[in-house]
Amino acid sequence: MSQEIERRFVLTAEPAPDLLDVGTRMAQGYLCSGDGLSVRIRIVATDATLTIKGGGGLARTEVELPLDAGDAQALWPFTADQRIDKVRYRVPLGLDGRVAEVDRYAGHLEGLHTVEVEFDDEQQAAGFEPPAWFGREVTGDPAWSNSALARHGRPDRPT
Length: 159
Fold this sequence. Notes:
An eight-stranded antiparallel β-barrel has the order 1-5-4-3-2-6-7-8. By secondary structure, the protein is mainly beta. The longest helix is centred in the middle third of the chain and has 7 residues, at 69-75. It has three helices and nine strands, in the order βββββαβββαβα. The protein starts with a strand and ends in a 7-residue tail after the last helix. A hairpin with a 2-residue loop joins β3 (37-44) and β4 (47-54). The protein has one domain (3-151): Hypothetical Protein Pfu-838710-001 (Beta Barrel), CATH 2.40.320.10. The chain is globular and about 40 Å long. 13% of the residues lie in helices and 43% in strands.
């Protein structure tokens, strides 16, 4: 079984430019989400993936499958009103090889920055000391999942 173990944070300010690499633009659209399950299409340049996530919290099931670009475009209209546009930056965190993924959102989420760190197991995740610039932790808060952000916007700002 494929499992994602990840901690997630909301940055209170944009990270220093010297921390960020070039970044990768991503378009994500959700075909369905709710009740602990989400099905998303992610388009990055000419590549696309179909991702199914189940569960919530620190550890959850995640299955990613390559998706033909034509199939991704055929399904894209079904994601209307459930989309995210963002640029992802990879930030090395130190000698253990761990990397933070900083997402800078655009469109209806303009100004939002989140950071995620993935782990091999829950013990590693529990022992991780986030740098101060990570901000507030929202791991396990369903209102801060990308699928909820796509559907409802930021939970800390009224729509």
